[in-house]
Amino acid sequence: MHFKDKVVLITGGNSGIGKATALAFAREGAIVVIVARDRNKLNQTINELKKHNNKCLSYVCDVRDAKKVSGVVKDAIRKFWKINILVNNAGFGIYRGFCESSLDDIKEQMDVNYFGTVNFTKEVLPYMIKQRSGNIVNIASAAGKAGFPGASGYCASKFAVVGLSEALYYEMKKKGINVNLICPGAVDTPFQKNPGYEDFPHEKRHKKIIKAEDVAKAVVDAVRFNRFETILPFGVAVKLWGKGIVPFLWRKIVHTITRNEKY
Q1: Which of 102, 174, 195, 259 lies 20 to 30 angstroms, CA to CA, from 6?
Q2: Which of 59, 114, 127, 154 is the catalytic position?
Q3: CATH number of the domain that 182 lies in?
Q4: Which residues have C-beta within 8 Å of that of residue 194, sequence separation ≥ 6?
């Protein structure tokens, strides 16, 4: 697939994986529309994107606000008449045990990570169905394929994204729309510096960390070659494959690795 003049809408597009993905598509000639809450960061990113395509746009929007999401999508459609690719990337996590997590902690992660994905997908799909084409790309996580202590709220939200993506894959196939699921392991982004992760044992759990650009390449390739699921890096994919084959051994290893952690 060629991306020149394709309209790509990316949530959480002002930093980390979202920004790297926006730049990757812009370099391919796509018209990139980025959405985030921080206007200053959006302005910085859009200036970089316009070096590749002057038609790129940005919107300040909280993915949890269904009305604002609807307004963003309608305005983008009014300007470009189409959205070819939606990348649901906005998300965050809190490292905290379930008993120590407040209901607000758990709900906020679900609202941003899962319902933010639902809100944009709900708004964009009707236009893609009319076009009889399009890609919905959902950025989940390895934590959406396996549960880890200290991340119950985050894991639950990403498991929900994985389940939604798989169901949509079947529902949308006959409508000409492709669904792509990306499940990265640890990525070196501002996510790692989230205040909710100040006690996270990065040096122990995240010995092999990938770059946002690695995930961006995986996104572009998934769309280009129509791959439903991409798990990266390869080592994480192998480990998750092993979990499916010998789940009892996986649970023993995770428990042994994390039993002395603070969560």
Answers
A1: 174
A2: 154
A3: 3.40.50.720
A4: 92, 93, 94
pTM for the whole structure: 0.95
143 closest CA partner among 82, 206, 62:
206
CA distance 140 to 177: 19
Give the position of tokens 């995986």.
Answer: 218
Q: Decide if 154 is catalytic.
A: yes
Residue 192 pLDDT greater than 70, yes or no: no
- The parent domain of residue 202 ranges over 7-258
What is the arithmetic mean of pLDDT over 96-116?
A: 96
* CA torsion, ordered 134, 140, 142, 147, to nearest 10 deg: -140
Beta-ladder partners of 232: 184
- Please give the single-letter amino acid code of residue 169: Y
Task: Output the CA–CA distances (angstroms, integers) from residue 70 to 118, 120, 138, 240, in the order listed.
Answer: 12, 8, 18, 36
C-alpha 51/C-alpha 193 separation (Å) is 29
